[in-house]
# Entry
Amino acid sequence: MNRLVTILFFMTLSVMAETVFSQERTNRKISGCYKEEPLKNILQELESQLQVKFNYLDRSVKDKNVTASFEKKKLPEALKIILEKTDLSFRIFYNSRNIVLFKSKIPPARSIPKYTLCGYVEDVDSGERLMGANVFDERRKIGTTTNMYGFFSLTLPADSVSFTVSYMGYRFFQQQFFLNRDRRMKIKLQPISVMGDTVQIVYSEQPFENQGWMGRSAVPVSQMQYLPELGGEMNILKTFHSFPSSEFMGKGRSGLYIRGGSPD
# Structure
C-alpha cells in the first residue's frame, strides 16, 4: 500500500513538473524576422529553439510563405503574428510540449465588382430619343426604363449579360457580351409598320328630311279628345300648362310664359 502511494506521488510530481516546464517554454520571450520564409522552416526553428513539437498536416503548411517581424514576444503572441495572414490557428497543450496547428479561418469571399451600363435609346431614322423604353438583362432579370430624355442607367455585377431593349412600334434589340467595365451605349431602334386588314367606307347619299326643330313640341290631333273641356269646348291653352317648358302666369290672367321667351 505504501509502495502504491509512493508511485502515485512521484507520478503527480512528474506531471506537475512537466506542466510547469511547458509553461516556461511558452512564456519564454523570443524574437524573429522573416521575409517570404516558408512556414515549415519557421516552425522547425521554433521547435529547436523552445523544445516544443508542432503537430500539423503537411498540406496545410505547404506553399505558405510568411513575412513577419516580432521582438521579445511570448510564443502565443509570436504565433499569432506568424499565422495572421494564413488560414491556420493553433492550440497549446500546457500539460505537454505539443502545439497543434489546424485550419479555422475561412478566407473571405472575393467580392464581385459591379459596373454600370448607361446611354440613350433613339429612333434610327429621326434620332428622336425614346421615353419609356424597356431596358433589361435577361440573365439576372434586372431592368429599368428610359427617362423623359431617353436616358437609362443599369448597374450589374461583372458577368455575361443578355442586354435587351424593347419599345412599342420598334424592332426588338438584343446584344450579348461580358461586362467587365463601365459602358456607355447608344441604342438605335428600327421602327416597324403594323399592317392590318383593309377597311372600306361606303357612302350613299340620301335626301335630308327635316323632322322638326329643336324645342318644338307637337300635340297630335288624336290626343285632342283627352284635353280638358270648359263649357263643352276643349281648352288648348290649358293643355300647354302641362308641358315642362311652359309656365302658367296665374289665375285671371291669360298669358302663357314659354321658357326662353316672354309672356304671350
